Amino acid sequence: MQELIILILSYFLGAIPVGLLMVKAFKGVDVRSYGSGNIGTINVLRVGGYWVAALVLIADVAKGAVPVLLASYLGLSSWIVVLAGLIAISGHNWSIFLGFKGGKGVATTLGVLVALSPLAALVAAVVWVLVVAITKYSSLGSMLGALSAPITLYLTGAPLAYILFGVIGSLFVLVRHKANIQRLIKGEELKFSQRYATEKKEKE
After folding, report:
1. Core-most of 6, 24, 27, 111, by most CB within 10 Å?
2. pTM of the model
């Protein structure tokens, strides 16, 4: 019963659409109507600015870290701990509050990694920074950063459950970036520094 409660709480915590709520509160607009239509940090940055994006980033990371830390604190098995993290990400990606739509899960995945392996989270963050610095594409940095996680976890001797999380978590990120991959191939992907002002959502 305790495990079931943790998993249910993980989903509903992950499902809170922080990006949508923050942009509405500070800017009075629906972030889904602008740019990529995503509720995540990068689209919030383009629509709402740096401070709003920073708040969303912190909250979305916490959505991934808190369920994992809570499950660990309660002494649940590593498999339940990892499952709590994956369910929190699923809540963010397919939120019940948004008709089972949502973000791309990058920050929430990072939050899970922070709780499971700070080193793997640091490596993923460094990969993101380097890729964005070189290519200016946040989506590419997010995907490569996610792919670095299972490699780091394996090389550092993490438990099998954690390595499996790295694999599944990175696949989640890739799947949610399908449209970005298509735009990257076509040369139509927006670069990190580009912002939306009044342009309505792109059709994917």
Report:
1. 111
2. 0.90
